[in-house]
Amino acid sequence: MKKVILASAVVALGAFATAAHADDGAVNGAAGGAVTGAIVGGPVGAAVGGVAGAVIGSAIDPPPERVVTYVEKQPAQQSIVVEQPVVVGHVIPQDVVLTPVPEDPRYAYTIVNEQRVIVDPQTYTVVQVLQ
């Protein structure tokens, strides 16, 4: 049993070290995943949850400040009404027209429910909602 706990701790530490070099989203995701995994599955769950959390946490990083600034400065477009809540991590309908961000093609934006929304144009996943 001690070997399993020790091995789990080593795997978890390795995941955190790897995530720490990636970015803050991965670190936050790894920490949250490890805590959740530990509650559900003990030490082994902590290791697995940490790795899964790092992957998920890095998947929805906020865009760089230059992208946010660009989107904030653009003239207002007509707002699209969407029935579902528009929150980070949710996918907006594919029929919503996106405007690409020229400085960073990884992002696009639109105005949904009177809010400027930065989106991943590949998946239509909301990356940030601007207030």
Automatic annotation (TrEMBL):
Domain of life of the native organism: Bacteria
Pfam name, any one: DUF1236
InterPro entries associated with the record: DUF1236
Protein name: DUF1236 domain-containing protein
Signal peptide extent: 1-22
Keywords from the named record: Signal
